[in-house]
Design goal:
The structure is a homodimer. A six-stranded mixed sheet of chain A has the order 6-7-8-3-9-10, with helices on both faces. In chain A, strands 2-1-4-5 form a four-stranded antiparallel sheet, with helices on one face. Helix content of chain A is 31%, strand content 29%. By secondary structure, the first copy, chain A, is of the alpha/beta class. The first copy, chain A, is built from six helices and ten strands, in the order E-E-E-H-E-E-H-E-H-H-H-E-H-E-E-E. In chain A, strand 4 and strand 5 form a beta hairpin. The interface between A and B is medium-sized, with 34 and 34 residues. The complex binds adenosine-5'-triphosphate (ATP) (2 copies) and magnesium ion (MG) (2 copies). One magnesium ion (MG) binds next to helix 1 of chain B. The site of one magnesium ion has 4 residues of chain A, from helix 1.
């Protein structure tokens, strides 16, 4: 499905350079379930943003579905994203002026889906993450875990082939977290590729491949059979 | 130190009422270490905001240090807060235009502490949460866990008597989380009152009292000796 070769992401800060990613080589097959772990600041979000076409490498190659992503224009990149990638942000990125229902619905408009179909699908996803009773609340009228679940529902409403989740259960109690992980398992069972960044070691049980990052590099990578 | 009697917090939404807190009775002694758990949406942040004088009950009484908080003016409330309470928000609430160092320093200015003393103390707290190498970054140039640690450092820089932490380690790997919990234990050892909202059951080991909320009410409350 995708591969990275020598991928780097640097930030210049005055006279120094922050090497958020410092040489990543990776192969991802369609339908795999990955867990990415590592210390705070080790590069997990940076890697996920690159995989999700939200950012570009400063060096190296990223090929997705046979296309060299670094060669694409911003418009083409945005098109790839909205069509095949569902991204759950570590900081949610909900639109404050829209209700829960409207926030979930937004990605469908980009795909030319309109009411009543878009509204029906948004409500279906809201039900799946337990938010039916909050459809008309705005993000500031929700608890932290409820906001996180809106972000999850929105990422899934387009039925994306690839789901990238950046610590998507960090604000959830374990019962609710298990419900979300069951949704991820379901999606995986439907053939989707799942990549979860998580600090919770227990979540790696659901994954086939577990990668640990340290200082912008891959420290270890194991397949569950060996785990 | 504090007690709550019949505390309620309601929100009117059109024709319905959301009962975020629905009758809380609670006694908190100085120097205790509490853990608050419960499902997403059960009222934890709402309770913490009330305890931290960031919000007022719609009904009931909250007495802190012998003072009926509901009787205080906004100014007086704000004064109580900045002097004795350190609050770590679930969504961090950092100031985007300020650097890490400046963000940590802000509460000191309200207490009339100025550079070089304020700068020295901000750097001391930054070191304690492992952010010495990020002092001049702005929040958008930090990882999620680094932002969370700035929020922690800022809450502690005033040496508050009461520390209220709303899921303050949800974005941290377990090694970093343990470092933060060691800081909390240290503060508790100095006689401070600690109240942690957490989804991580393992964290309740550090607490003397563990409360579980459900639907805005206290479902259970146990003291560690019985645990
Ligand atoms: N401004 C508001 N208007 C209406 N309802 C609100 C508002 N703020 C919070 N709520 C509701 O109050 C309830 C309690 O919210 P609270 O933030 O205390 O939950 P929580 O236990 O902290 O959840 P989480 O674990 O997800 O952070 C939630 O159901 C939420 O939807
Ligand atoms: N715009 C930026 N400018 C400078 N440095 C940055 C910028 N964005 C991120 N960084 C740095 O890049 C490193 C990796 O960040 P990243 O967000 O990928 O970490 P992470 O593994 O997701 O951490 P966490 O677990 O805390 O979320 C961090 O040390 C961070 O300070
Ligand atoms: Mg991150
Ligand atoms: Mg909360």
């Amino acid at each position: 499905l995708a591969y990275l070769r020598g991928v780097c992401r640097h930030y210049r800060m005055g006279n120094s350079v922050v090497r958020a990613l410092d040489g990543i080589d990776l192969d991802i097959e369609t339908g795999e379930y990955w867990a990415i772990q590592g210390r705070s600041g080790s590069g997990k979000s940076t890697l996920l943003n690159l995989l999700g076409c939200l950012d570009r490498p400063t060096a190296g190659t990223y090929v997705l579905d046979g296309v060299d992503v670094s060669a694409l224009s911003d418009d083409a990149l945005s098109h790839v994203r909205s069509r095949s990638i569902g991204f759950i942000f570590q900081s949610f990125n909900l639109i404050p002026q829209l209700t829960v229902e409207e926030n979930i619905e937004v990605p469908l408009f980009y795909q030319g889906v309109a009411p009543p179909e878009s509204r029906r699908r948004a409500r279906e996803l809201a039900a799946r993450v337990g938010l039916t009773e909050r459809l008309h609340h705005r993000p500031t009228e929700l608890s932290g875990g409820q906001q996180q679940r809106v972000a999850i529902a929105r990422a899934l409403v387009n039925d994306p082939a690839i789901v990238l989740a950046d610590e998507a259960t960090g604000n959830l109690d374990s019962a609710t977290e298990n419900e979300i992980l069951a949704v991820m398992d379901q999606l995986h069972g439907m053939g989707k590729t799942i990549i979860l960044v998580t600090h919770n070691a227990a979540l790696t049980r659901h994954a086939e491949k577990v990668m640990v990052l340290a200082d912008g590099r891959i420290e270890s990578l194991r397949t569950r059979a060996e785990a």
